[in-house]
């Protein structure tokens, strides 16, 4: 059974962190406004911030799937405030932000699925572009905010299907509505930085991460959640795009980068109010089918079947990020390689399926292990 009492779990304080957490003990006691906290990445970031001793104020929609990290790991118990509302509701967002009086804002809320963007393009544009504009307008009306980190995606680049990594100064673009909306979101960030925030002293940066894996994701049309669902019902997993290559990493890796970026912004580090890539090493940029075959080593029940159905929507075949800027400027690097990431991901889902673990504690244990 999940604990609903914060004091049951030993979360530590800024002086008790493992060595790897000391670089982020800066967040202890700070007020953080986080959009998208009910989602997969947002839930993990909430748990990381609570591990670091921050006061977290969440703003998001209800979880979209019946199974979700937010409920299973009792993420709500980590929050100082919890607002369920849409990015389109500027009045609710401004009220929540002003009540929180945050020093920093992490914006993760989005419509994050490529295939859904073909089905609901208007919703995708409204959420990802106008939703970001609404957030930044609220920031302009909340004097406590000193820094903003906007999360976009590696898919914001104009994909050339080349074999080397995209750098932050490469051309933005997007074939599908999701990718294009995220490229447009980057333009919004640049515009607000130049037009408003440079003069006001608010520092803003964008973060572009590759494909993430980890426990607690049940979103549609994602590789690991699709595998989890197939195993649960004893079916073979139909692989839609087996040759597609992606930069795979554990969700904790880019979230660690976001936190380092936020710290650098708040501390006034020069040159960080810009865009940053957070992706794995090139050796972890593997095809879909190779990732699933490695996952079978931890999950023998997983059976694979190559799909013969024609693809209905455009998907990039090659995608790789050059993260040297984050490494040199922020001192960031992924602490877990793909093998470790797959092991930890499979372990989380197997523990949840077995039903004999406190998944909040299991989630925090993985965070603590990541920082060892």
From TrEMBL:
<keyword id="KW-0456">Lyase</keyword>
<dbReference type="InterPro" id="IPR016040">
    <property type="entry name" value="NAD(P)-bd_dom"/>
</dbReference>
<dbReference type="Pfam" id="PF16363">
    <property type="entry name" value="GDP_Man_Dehyd"/>
</dbReference>
<feature type="domain" description="NAD(P)-binding">
    <location>
        <begin position="34"/>
        <end position="344"/>
    </location>
</feature>
<dbReference type="InterPro" id="IPR036291">
    <property type="entry name" value="NAD(P)-bd_dom_sf"/>
</dbReference>
<dbReference type="GO" id="GO:0047733">
    <property type="term" value="F:CDP-glucose 4,6-dehydratase activity"/>
</dbReference>
<dbReference type="InterPro" id="IPR013445">
    <property type="entry name" value="CDP_4_6_deHydtase"/>
</dbReference>
<protein>
    <submittedName>
        <fullName>CDP-glucose 4,6-dehydratase</fullName>
        <ecNumber>4.2.1.45</ecNumber>
    </submittedName>
</protein>
């Amino acid at each position: 059974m999940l604990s609903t009492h914060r004091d049951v779990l030993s979360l530590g304080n800024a002086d008790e962190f493992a060595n790897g957490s000391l670089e982020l003990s800066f967040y202890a006691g700070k007020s953080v406004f986080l959009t998208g906290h009910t989602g997969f990445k947002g839930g993990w970031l909430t748990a990381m911030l609570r591990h670091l001793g921050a006061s977290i104020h969440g703003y998001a929609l209800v979880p979209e799937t019946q199974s979700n990290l937010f409920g299973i790991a009792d993420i709500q118990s980590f929050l100082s405030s919890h607002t369920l509302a849409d990015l389109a509701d500027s009045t609710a967002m401004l009220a929540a932000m002003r009540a929180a009086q945050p020093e920093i804002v992490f914006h993760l809320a989005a419509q994050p699925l490529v295939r859904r963007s073909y089905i609901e393009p208007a919703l995708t544009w409204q959420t990802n572009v106008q939703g970001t504009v609404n957030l930044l307008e609220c920031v302009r009306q909340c004097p406590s905010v000193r820094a903003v980190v906007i999360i976009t995606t590696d898919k914001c680049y104009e994909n050339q299907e080349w074999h080397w990594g995209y750098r932050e100064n490469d051309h933005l673009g997007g074939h599908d509505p999701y990718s294009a909306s995220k490229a447009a979101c980057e333009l919004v960030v640049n515009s607000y930085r130049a037009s408003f925030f440079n003069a006001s002293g608010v520092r803003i940066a964008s973060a572009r991460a590759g494909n993430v894996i980890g426990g607690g994701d049940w979103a549609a049309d994602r590789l690991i959640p699709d595998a989890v669902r197939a195993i649960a019902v004893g079916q073979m997993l139909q692989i839609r795009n087996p040759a597609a290559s992606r930069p795979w990493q554990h969700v904790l890796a880019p979230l660690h980068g976001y936190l380092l970026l936020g710290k650098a912004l708040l501390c006034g580090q020069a040159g960080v109010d810009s865009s940053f890539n957070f992706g794995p090493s090139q050796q972890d940029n593997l095809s879909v089918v190779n990732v699933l075959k490695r996952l079978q080593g931890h999950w023998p029940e997983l059976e694979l079947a190559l799909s013969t159905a024609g693809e209905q929507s455009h998907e990039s075949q090659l995608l790789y990020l050059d993260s040297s800027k984050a490494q040199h400027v922020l001192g960031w690097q992924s602490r877990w390689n793909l093998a470790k990431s797959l092991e930890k991901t499979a372990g989380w889902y197997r523990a949840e399926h077995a039903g004999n673990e406190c998944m909040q504690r299991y989630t925090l244990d993985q965070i603590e292990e990541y920082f060892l």
